[in-house]
Inverse folding.
């Protein structure tokens, strides 16, 4: 088959209409760059004019070159009794400066008559004039027929007349939207097939997941002839979410031989999914098809033994094809083979028959059980293994620290950290202020270490993440801190876990500094620096 | 149509093969009682003999009367070169003492030849003898044709011969399983239609969600003639999970007029879903169709204004029909309608035409742009609106606090907080230790407030979340803190934002205490407590 399907990502627009999903303008740019690299064709960035953050994104996007994707600004048709020339919303769409725009109009008489309370022909006029005006301004116009399926079921002639109006005004794509997510795949097939008889413009599909059918509806539409599909990474979106690109792309490309993204990109899907959930600071759904950490996790004993003989017995695609990995969940049945599988996967440089392997894996399991997460913190993992191999001494020895946060009636807090540490028996005692306790501690540590290792000035902390591990314990809960550090674009991540956020932060900070110094001093470090 | 569909729940068996899902025998009994009351026809309780917990459940279940449901024990056919009489697994199935049993056999030559490594005719014999033996022991026999669709695609004759063997031995239902979850709805339709030509026994469907198509596949099978369907509450199950009964039941019963459970039970669906996630101790998926807390949550301003006119505009069924409720989220995507709806719901006396509304909307948008998130923090939102209406005074006045975190070479940190506050001019000065800075501050604040408002002892903090807002700023980044508090199962959430995690935490803490006190003292509080 190999038909090409155009992918339209709306994570940054419809995705943010989902509860708990919020991105800053910079977050949006990071995600857009990632989507571009992945091979997405259209990236809908937001609704310029609806809020300052979205316009700020389009300003940032204008200063950035996208290799493949077109950035798209979203908005509605002009308002009733208004021309596009005088419509603020339409003008903002043009101001956004994107090569393509998507505008939505009404297809359902219920909305025309009850929500907008306007004349049915005026609605047709608004669609036509808005599309025409945007085409005159050299935009690629993607027309979103909102509630198309509900509208078609209620009054097929009227629904068709709205998209014909967009077509006659020059729309480049007509997107049939199941806005309320209540339509079933058999209805999608029937309606798309009927619509095809009436318009020549390429058709698209925009599905919501309110019946848990968004992926099936999108496949039904594509199988019926839609060549453009809209969705979001991880299915984020209003109410129950949008059609999930992380399921649709492999379904179409790996299993139905459509062409969605470049062949080699499909294996980056799991990483894309995790990146977006990370930026959104939402826990990834471990059960998510294809990309979730449980998607290829085998727990039942019979399954594990069959998979070890032939993975096809319980896996419909290979985990590698979507950049995921097979996991064998720990149970009474998993013995040495499980341990070898895991240490291979971690890339630990140990003899396969080494007696250290079981001890290391036990320690890892115990620490992961306590809340550490080494998958995301390979620098801490490397230090841990070095320590267990007794080939490690820290570059500095902490004697103590003290942090004071003081708030007076007059305003914000003042935070000061003092630290005492020794290197080769020489003591350094420093103090620093910071905007919070961890910032102050980082600055004091940096000052103290600098005397012995001036190269420390070249590395800095890039990201600091905190996750509360035990819910239901309020402020007494255990927390995990992840710190991303960087030198010249080379990042590494470290982890700390404690009931005390300061202790967890110290653990991750100290690992980060040590890891950096070890890599700086690889040749000269004699394993006895202290 | 109104055809009756038999529901077979496997939450307690296949559900527990999902990662992170585990139930005690008593948990299983509680869930089984709930499923029975809800109107489920078959409750698969586990695999007796595979572990002691499952057999214990069947013992508990025998002492309990189920009004409607039949409890089902699960197992495999007898082993190769073994008779059912001598097969331990089959004997345990009988010992479980359930009215019905489900047994699985192989349909796919790959499994027969590569996993079991047995003769293809021996597999047919095992199926036949096992079903016959269980029928002779007066069991209702549900035959699960494992990997039926994969097997049929590879070799239709062989796959058919396995279920014909079960049929000829007297199986009551033949369940076609998509065990690996890799089959598409069009394949399901085609294969079910072909199978119908060859067997007379009622057909069932068992789908997995590896392509995010389990619900669609189940509907396709039912629409093609299957009258028995298997699934789990919330879609728990091996890898990506099983077909989700919480979506399938309303899809079939509310939207396709099948009869699944008694009419009046559908509205207990949301409560069933939450009960099961509570017993499993898993966070509910807020985006879950029909039953999730976001399923009828409206965030976009246009959606809210339309829903207020006619809920059909953005809801495909009513929230009440599945026992859920409508929610309006307030965020930077909101317009005036969101604020009006929300203030109505919160019981804030805000005139519909009030001039205060635009100022409140502006303030909210500005604060959300700074990183506040009010959709999850309705208590802080309510305080903000009260403050903007100048109808608010805090219950206590902070004079200052100091937090000291001290770490010595010997081990973990020691954290102490001191706080000074006044109520009606009376000063209180308290100190407390905690396992971290926020815990210590919470304890000190609690001590200080207690003297004036002893009722504070009845509320406690339940969850504490931290999110770093500006990436790339490392430990100098802005953070948002969300605190969930609770009194007698009534929760509320507050928010704080600052570069200093202590200031952000203080803001959320102080809002939480004030919100609680306002609701405690609603009658007596004279708006000038201080």
């Amino acid at each position: 088959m190999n038909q090409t399907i155009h992918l339209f990502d709306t994570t940054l627009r419809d995705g943010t209409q989902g509860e708990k999903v919020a991105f800053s303008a910079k977050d949006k740019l990071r995600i857009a760059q990632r989507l571009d690299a992945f091979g997405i064709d259209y990236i809908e960035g937001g609704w310029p004019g609806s809020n300052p953050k979205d316009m700020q994104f389009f300003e940032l996007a204008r200063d950035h070159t996208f290799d493949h994707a077109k950035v798209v600004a979203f908005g509605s048709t002009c308002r009733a009794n208004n021309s596009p020339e005088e419509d603020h919303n339409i003008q903002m769409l043009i101001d956004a400066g994107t090569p393509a725009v998507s505008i939505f109009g009404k297809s359902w008489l219920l909305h025309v008559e009850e929500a907008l309370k306007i004349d049915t022909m005026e609605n047709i006029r608004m669609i036509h004039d808005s599309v025409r005006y945007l085409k005159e301004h050299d935009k690629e116009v993607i027309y979103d027929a909102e509630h198309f399926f509900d509208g078609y079921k209620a009054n097929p002639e009227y629904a068709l007349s709205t998209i014909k109006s967009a077509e006659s005004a020059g729309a480049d794509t007509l997107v049939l939207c199941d806005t309320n997510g209540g339509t079933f795949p058999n209805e999608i097939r029937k309606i798309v097939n009927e619509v095809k008889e009436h318009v020549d413009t390429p058709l698209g599909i925009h599905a919501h997941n309110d019946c848990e059918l968004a992926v099936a509806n999108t496949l039904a539409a594509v199988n019926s002839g839609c060549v453009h599909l809209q969705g979001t990474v991880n299915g984020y979106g209003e109410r129950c979410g949008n059609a999930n690109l992380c399921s649709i792309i492999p379904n179409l490309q790996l299993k139905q031989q459509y062409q969605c993204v470049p062949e080699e990109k499909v294996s980056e899907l799991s990483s894309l999914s995790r990146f977006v959930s990370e930026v959104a600071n939402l826990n990834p759904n471990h059960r998510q098809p294809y990309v979730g950490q449980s998607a290829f996790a085998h727990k039942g004993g019979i399954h594990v033994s069959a998979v070890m003989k032939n993975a096809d017995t319980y896996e419909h695609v290979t985990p590698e094809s979507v950049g995921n990995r097979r996991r064998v969940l720990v149970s009474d049945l998993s013995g040495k083979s499980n341990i070898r599988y895991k240490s291979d996967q971690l890339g630990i440089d140990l003899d396969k028959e080494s007696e250290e392997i079981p001890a290391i894996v036990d320690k890892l399991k115990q620490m992961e059980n306590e809340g550490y997460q080494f998958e995301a913190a390979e620098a801490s993992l490397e230090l841990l293994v070095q320590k267990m191999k007794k080939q490690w001494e820290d570059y500095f020895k902490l004697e103590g620290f003290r942090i004071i946060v003081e708030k007076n009636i007059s305003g914000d807090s003042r935070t000061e950290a003092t630290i005492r540490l020794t290197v080769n028996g020489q003591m350094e005692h420093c103090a620093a202020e910071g905007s919070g306790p961890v910032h102050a501690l980082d600055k004091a540590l940096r000052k103290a270490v600098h005397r012995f290792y001036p190269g420390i000035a070249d590395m800095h902390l890039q990201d600091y993440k905190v996750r509360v591990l035990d819910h239901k314990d309020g402020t007494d809960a255990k927390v995990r801190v992840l710190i991303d550090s960087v030198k010249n674009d080379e990042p590494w991540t470290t982890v700390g876990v404690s009931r005390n956020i300061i202790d967890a932060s110290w653990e991750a900070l100290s690992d980060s500094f040590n890891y950096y110094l070890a890599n700086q001093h690889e040749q000269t470090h004699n394993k006895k620096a202290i």
Chain A has 17 helices and 16 strands. Residues 501-520 of chain A form the longest helix (20 residues).
